[in-house]
Each structure stands twice: as C-alpha cells, then as structure tokens.
Design a protein that fits this description.
Rossmann fold; globular; six-stranded mixed β-sheet; Structural Genomics Hypothetical 15.5 Kd Protein In mrcA-pckA Intergenic Region, Chain A; alpha/beta; five-stranded mixed β-sheet; RNA-binding; 17 helices
RNA sequence: GGAGGGGUGCCGGAGUGGUUAAUCGGAGCAGACUGUAAAUCUGCCGCUCGGAAGGGCUACGCAGGUUCGAACCCUGCCCUCUCCA
C-alpha cells in the first residue's frame, strides 16, 4: 500500500500549522516522501476518558496524516494509567478495575473518533505486552536508564528541587511509554510539547533495541478558556469535545480576545489566507472581536456536532446571554409545591444551589428570579410550570409533583 | 540507623494560646457595567437555625493530654522532604 503523492508544498503545510517541533524533521520529510505508510502512535490514559479542545490540536494533525494514507495506532494506556502522568503533583493512583478501564476506553474512543478516522486506526492495549512482563523484564528495562537521565525531565527536576515527593513508579512512566513505541514499531509519535521528554525516551529505547527511532511530532499546548494556563480538566478551563453545542459555543465566547487567532489556527480548518484577513481586521480594530469569536464557535461546534447545531447554539447564546431571555428548552424539575413552600429547599433539591446556605446567599444577592421577577424572600407562592432562573444561565422549570399523581 | 525541616479551607500560602470560620493571592459564585460567559468594578465564598439581629455545629495530618480556653503547648502515631551513614 502506498500513500498519496504530494508536493513539498503540501509537506510544508502539513508540518507547519499547528505543529511546534518535529524531531528529526528532515527524516520525517524523507519518510513522508518515500510513500511508505507510516505508523503514527498516539496514546491515552484511560483514567481520564474525556477529550477537550487541547487534545484536539494533535488529533486534528493525526487526521491530516490519515487523510494522505497513513495509519494511526491508538494505545490504551491501561498500565500507565495506574501510575499517572507525573506532570502534575500526581501520585500513584489506585488500580482501576478492568471493567472501569474498559468503559473509560469506550468513552474515550467515542470522542476520539469524532476527529480521527476510525477506519485507519488500529487500537492496541498496553496489557497486550505488559500483561506478560515479569520482574526480569522490568529490571532489564529499568537498567537501560539512569536517574540523572530521568531527572532531566522538567517536571521531575522541578518537583525534586522543590522538595516534593516523587515515587519510583513515576520514574517508570516514561519507560513504559517508550516501550509502547517498541511494541508497536512506531514510525512517528504525536504529543504535546509537554510530552517531549517521554517522546524522546521512546526514540532512545527503540535505538537500544535495534529499531529505527520514531520521529517525534509535537503540537503546541492550547491555552485554556482563562487565557493563561494550558487547557486542562483539573484547572477547569477546558472545553470538552463531548459537551453540548450550547456549552461549547458559550465557552468559546468566554475566551479572552487575545487568544482568538490561536484557537482559529490550532483547532479549525479555516484557511491560512482567511486567518491573515482576520489578523489584519483585529489589528486595525476593524472588527468586533465578538463577531470573530462567534465564527470560531460555529466552526468548532460544526466540527464536533454539525452545522445545524452550530446555528442553534449561536441562537441560544444570543437569546440567553446577550438578551438575557429564557432559553427555548428548559429542564423540567418536579417538586411538591404544596407543603410550606421553602425556596432554599427547592433550589438545593434541584441542584441550582450547593446547600441551603448557598441558596440563601444567591437569593440575597438578587441572583434568583421567578418568571422574570427577582426574588427577595425565601417563602413565596409558586405556580406549577414557572421558570426559575439562577445567575445568568441556570434555569429550571418547576412542575408540581402532586399534579402528575 | 542518625540529625533537621514540613503537613492549614478547592489550590497556593499567612498565622505559634483567647477579639480566628481562620490575613492574603488564585479559582469559583453573584451583581453592575459592557462588545461576550472578554475586560473592569463591587460583593460573596464551611454547614445549619433565623425575616433580621444573632445562635448552634464542624474544621487547621491522626489519636490522646495540659488549660477556663488550642491550628497554635505536651505525648504517641502516620505521611513527606533534606543532609549524614
């Protein structure tokens, strides 16, 4: 099987937009030109089954490689999941049950294949090779690297210098990931720039074991909706691939103006020429950034859902956020309105407030309104079918639970 | 094995016997404003009772102790870091 023929210009484009660094670039270019189908490795940790836009940068690039004929190998990190990627201050995690790993992997793949072509993807589980590992194998693997080498990784050295604990299992993480490359004979491994160390260990181990070292393609880290930190679930500044169109659109609208172009470039397919136009418009203040953000939101929702959802999501945003109106669809909540009505109780029980104290706070801050009028006291008469609004965008339609009986 | 640090609310990090539900920063929430769920400003930010004023309960690694009173002092334990071996 051969890949499609394509020019230097195509290769340039492929390795430029949304790519941070390629090691070794000349070799990858040669490999791409050779016409050989390359095995593109991408791994994931099934303890975090949710994909967000940050991951999408790399997945989109994988897709581009697929579209010209290359093969993706998706690795389910059912062993590394138990260690936890040492980038944070994470510690060894409890073993996930086999069942749990399975359901997480399923969830992950549903999201993964929204972007990557399922037909051109081979799914492999780490346990296929690590399941048979014994202590001798572990010793053989670990003896190939030194502590000094491992400590060269930025995350490790930072923690080490800050007198924070690092377990030996965490040191194992890069080695396991590297061995994956050997096991599947990877030609190229994809990852964020924060993965550089692990990716390079893969190259080393492959060389040691007589394989051709994989090429490493690093994609930039996407900044989160806060505009400051990298997008991550634990920081809460993420936009999930599986979220509703309304949520995705709204979250896109909440990004700071300064990172609009960054998002366009990394996670949409809007052409380079058009992006240049946008940049000029922004520079000259010739466009309201909000309009560009709306376009961005439409692009992203279309990619993750479809064009129709994008339109609905935008309408929803205009209606609810900009005009402060009530959305078309409101979740119905059942509550017994008869007995001595207690609004705090109601808000808490339908999850519009965390606790009765929280509900009290919201009421006193004027955040709660019923059918458009702001509530000032706790006890009041409610009609079945009334709409409660809390804050800017939390709504519930209250149905008297007695009626349906 | 020895010596010395450290464990505080979602996170970072003050506080070393009472006025501490615990300074401050970040996150989060709300209101105002706006060009948006941007930015900015203001307020809130353990649970619970109360319309409010105010009250009760729980909380500073764990378990005890001293004291009228402890995040703060003492004892033991657990976790963790550094240095020496």
């Amino acid at each position: 099987m051969e890949t499609n023929k394509f020019s230097n210009q195509d290769i340039n484009r492929l390795l430029k937009r949304g790519v941070c660094e390629v090691i070794v670039k000349e070799e990858l270019v040669t490999a791409l030109k050779s016409g050989k189908v390359l095995r593109l490795k991408e791994g994931f940790d099934p303890s975090f089954p949710d994909i967000h836009l940050g991951h999408m940068v790399g997945l989109k690039k994988l897709r581009e490689f697929q579209d010209i004929g290359h093969q993706v190998v998706l690795i389910v990190g059912d062993w590394t999941a138990q260690i936890g990627d040492p980038s944070g201050a994470s510690v060894t995690r409890p073993m996930l049950s086999a069942e749990h790993v399975k359901t997480n992997a399923k969830t992950y793949m549903e999201q993964f294949f929204k972007i990557v072509d399922k037909e051109k993807t081979e799914v492999r589980w780490q346990s296929e090779w690590f399941g048979n590992f014994n202590l001798a194998d572990v010793i053989k693997l670990t003896s190939k690297f030194t502590i000094a080498q491992i400590l060269a990784r930025d995350d490790f050295s930072k923690r080490y210098n800050a007198n924070q604990p690092i377990t030996i299992t965490e040191f194992l993480y890069p080695l396991l990931q590297a061995y994956d490359s050997v096991a599947i004979k990877a030609d190229v491994e994809f990852g964020g720039t924060d993965q550089k160390f692990n990716l390079l260990v893969g190259r080393e181990l492959q060389t040691m074991l007589g394989q051709r070292p994989q090429q490493v393609l690093m994609v930039p880290l996407l900044v989160g909706t806060d505009g400051v930190h990298k997008m991550s679930k634990s920081l809460g500044n993420y936009i999930g691939v599986a979220e509703s169109p309304e949520n995705i659109f709204g979250k896109v609208m909440s990004i700071p103006d300064g990172i609009i172009m960054n998002y366009f470039e990394l996670i949409t397919c809007v052409s380079d020429q058009e992006l240049d136009e946008f940049r000029q418009l922004l520079d000259k203040n010739a466009v309201n950034p909000m309009e560009l953000k709306k376009r961005l939101g439409r692009e992203i929702v279309t990619k993750l859902h479809d064009a129709k959802s994008a339109i609905t999501a935008e309408e929803h945003f205009a209606k609810v956020v900009q005009n402060k109106e009530i959305p078309n669809e409101i979740e119905e909540c059942f509550f017994n309105l008869d007995s001595s009505m207690d609004l705090k109780e109601l808000l808490t029980s339908i999850n519009l407030a965390k606790s009765r104290s929280d509900a009290g706070r919201l009421i006193s801050q004027g955040a709660v309104s019923i059918d458009g009028s702001v509530v000032v006291c706790n006890s009041m008469k409610l009609e079945s079918g009334c709409v409660i609004k809390v804050g800017k965008r939390r709504f519930a339609k209250i149905i008297n639970s007695d009626i349906i009986k």
